[in-house]
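Q: Is it fine to ask for two folds in a single conversation?
A: Yes, each is treated on its own. Send the first.
Q: Here.
A: Result:
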Amino acid sequence: MSKPSVWVSLVVGLVLGFVGGRTSAPAAAPKGTTPTPAAVAQPSDRQRPPISPVVYKVPVDGSLIHGEESALVTLVEFSDYECPFCARGHATVKQLQQRYGDKLRVVMKHHPLDMHPRARPAAVAALAAGEQGKFWQYHDVLFANPRAQSDADLERYAKELGLDVARWKQDLAEPKLAERIRRDEAMAIQLGATGTPGFFVNGRFINGAQPLTVFTGVVDEELNKAEALVKGGVPKADVYARIIERGVERPPAPPAPAELPRQQVEVGEAPSRGPANAPVTLVAWSDFECPFCSRAVPTLKALEKEYEGKLRVAFKHQPLPNHPNAKLAAAASMAAHEQGKFWEFHDLLFANQRQLDRAAMEGYAKQVGLDVTRFKNALDARKFDARIDLDSAEGTRVGAGGTPTFFVNGRPIVGAMPIDHFRRIIDEELKKAGVAQR
């Protein structure tokens, strides 16, 4: 990590190791990941903070449910079939089902992230399989094959599971399936589960593909509470509704932190999206190999949709020395930018953080339709190294020595904070500019 400025040092304790490999508080959902921080080494159980006791109101009506209505614990999963961390979480869910049997029911909600182009078609395909009673079988096949989800693959799975393929294809076009996914996505964002996977165990949020012991600890606690309710006369089938009836519907607004100094931050020639004259500009200093940076990607995409026309997002590079492929990835993204494909390349890099070597870069260049020879020549000539070094030096100067760090009209946000933290600052800046908020 580059040496941060003095004021950043003062807040490092609040950030909880945003570059050091710890997860943030449970409400800070962006794993993003797209991927959640399961990509990095987890602290030991003794070091890991307890899961928050806050209960969220997570309805299950209209979702696919595996297990009995009388189960005392309900696990609601928001997941993405192309996300490698979701596949890891799926394996954990399978272990929980084996361990707890009819005491646990699992509810699947879909949250296909924009950075995973095949996640949405896969989700629709699974729901179409569900129209023939084969959702869970199809669901398992998708998680077993996160890298094989082309249209041909999806159809092959339908055949292998014995579906009526003609009917399955017809159901793929049903608007009601796409609408179910949109409702799930909206609920995930509302609940603060902006990255994947996100789990709610009797309404308590577990962010990311955490170790099995984290889940069993929460399930055991919730079983004890549920059994007490049953002893008190609550029918088993009513336990979940009773537990969540007073739950919160969204994360509590984060407390306003001590205001950090506003910095003079210019977009310059950085890749950006959104109107140049937008009343609010968000500049991110990020690292393609940093798992916490990937957690922020879904948050920024959600903000761009919410504040369309009012928000400009720019990207600057801060490849950290402890990430050996980060500078190459940064250079490759700029070579893609030179050909007008920065954001497409950006999404691929964050979706594939474990594959950032030179061969992978060239594969991604082909995938997004670049002139690969021109791309390779730019990397060989180290054409963008000086530009990346300038970004890094500027980041250190303004206090973005660690990643991710954001500046909203110059106001710093350090780390992959919850989306409501960004909203609060954006809304304040819009108000100052006399512009209507969301």
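Q: Second one now.
A: Result:
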Amino acid sequence: MGGAGELAGEKRVTWAELYFDLVFVFAITQVSGLLHHHHDGIGVVRALVVFVPVYWCWVGTTVQANIRDVDTARDRLGILSVGLTGLVMALAVPGAWEGRGVLLGAAYWAARIVLLLLLVRIPGVWRGPYGVGVLVSGPLLVAGGLLPEGPRVVLWGLAALCDLSAPVVFRRRLANVAYHPAHMPERFALFLLVALGESIVGIGATAAAARLDAAELLAVTAAFTISAGLWWQYFVYAADAMRHAVEVADSRRDVVRRVFQYGHLALVAGVIAVAVGFGETVADPRRALGAGSVALLYGGCGLYLLTFGYTRWMMFRSVATTRIGAAAVVLALAPLMVRWPAITALVSLAVVLVALNVVEHLRVARAAARELGVEPVVGGSV
């Protein structure tokens, strides 16, 4: 395999897939912008309903790349074609609830058709998630784009539910799919890294236009510490634990569905919410945030941490006590931060995440010491 290469039978991400991801850097930025302009309860629902097809388009491409050798001219062109449809979807996102709803739906439908054609040689591929995308969710998105906002939300929400439920509905048909254990964790980790990049943009784009006095520089430092803390939570402990879970699982299908397809939807959504929250705090760290911005910043972080409780239970049937506890602290602090200056909200959240990472580091170090030189416990306190 070309691109990122393949080591001794270990499937790795190709350069075509990495180029494809660049489209979704832009797509996540567009979803963040949509949430930034409307982040009340209705705005969150609208952003989520738009984000699901964007995310599921990426998931569909990743799964087909995982189960096949895609480093061929035909498959490179297929991945690039889906990338083009993803770019059109991203362009449609800002006007998805206005005049570009049909464009969003048509681009998604085209992406699902391309993906189905890439897998058309697999017997029965129509009777599975790829068939659902072509026969059900794609048409629903197009039809929804033709309707006013109220019915559009209903049809697009139904399309999202159809896509997300398809791996469960067809789980028996998917039981024989041979997922590659190294490629899948790497791909989803890269997608989360794309989302974390949006948090850096949320800090930098806002701070670049500010005066950058002492308060604003402190806000930038606190926001970056939060972003780095979220990165640390995943890439220092969770990434290896997730790869280990895939390798040893009796049913890789279940781990892929529960931990990667579903779990990472929540992880990425949490990071996007935090990124939008940064845009609301760094620009004017002295003013009070208000309930909407606090909900994005603290709610997004709480969702991110709680999701690790879900993924750890799905992988190992054990409780991620430290992360669930930290999530409880974050969510308990949220109402208190509504009337405090933004800088207080940022610094407080940064302190919680730093404390969590320190506690987990010490726990892993003690566990490793007890093993008398054996490798540390996989995943620490994921």
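Q: Anything structural to flag on that second result?
A: Two points. The chain is about 75% helix and 0% strand. Residues 186 and 360 are 23 Å apart (CA to CA).
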